[in-house]
């Protein structure tokens, strides 16, 4: 199943790099968002979302992640330099990885999340902290 990935990241070069990795896997980038408004507008187009904590409109990532998961059924993983901000978990989100994130980890995450979305067994990437 071809997954559509939403990238919620305010650092444009990081967002482009993530997008290139996703596309190289044969997946579709649902869009790039750098704030809450854009992320929620693009939400209906996505199956998976990588969400930073601190965005152009402030530390809105946790709220965005919760809303994407709860309101749209999107598989959400936070990618942040500040994983302690979401260390207690965010309702509906799956987990967090610490930046910088290498392309190989992005590939592992997409494969894991895609399998999880369709109820298949998948190995959790070692660098990801899973929320309980």
TrEMBL record:
Example of a GO MF term: DNA binding
4-aspartylphosphate PTM sites in chain numbering: 52
SUPFAM superfamilies the UniProt entry points to: CheY-like
UniProt record, GO biological process: phosphorelay signal transduction system
Residue ranges of every copy of the Response regulatory domain listed in the record: 4-114
Keyword annotations of the record: DNA-binding, Phosphoprotein
Protein origin, superkingdom: Bacteria
Record InterPro entries: CheY-like_superfamily, Sig_transdc_resp-reg_receiver
Keyword Hydrolase: no
Leader sequence segment: none
Coiled coil residues, start to end: none
Pfam families tied to this protein: Response_reg
Protein name: DNA-binding NtrC family response regulator
Organism name: Rhizobium leguminosarum
Lineage: Bacteria, Pseudomonadati, Pseudomonadota, Alphaproteobacteria, Hyphomicrobiales
């Amino acid at each position: 199943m071809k997954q559509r990935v939403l990238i919620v990241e305010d650092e444009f070069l990081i967002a482009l790099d993530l997008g290139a990795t996703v596309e190289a896997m044969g997946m579709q980038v649902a869009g790039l968002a750098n704030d809450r408004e854009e992320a929620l507008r693009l939400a209906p187009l996505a199956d998976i979302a990588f969400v930073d904590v601190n965005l152009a409109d402030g530390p809105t990532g946790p709220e965005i992640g919760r809303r994407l998961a709860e309101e749209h059924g999107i598989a959400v993983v936070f990618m942040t330099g500040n994983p302690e901000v979401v260390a207690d978990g965010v309702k509906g989100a799956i987990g967090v990885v610490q930046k910088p994130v290498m392309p190989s980890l992005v590939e592992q995450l997409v494969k894991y999340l895609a399998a999880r979305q369709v109820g298949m067994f998948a190995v959790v990437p070692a660098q990801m902290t899973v929320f309980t």
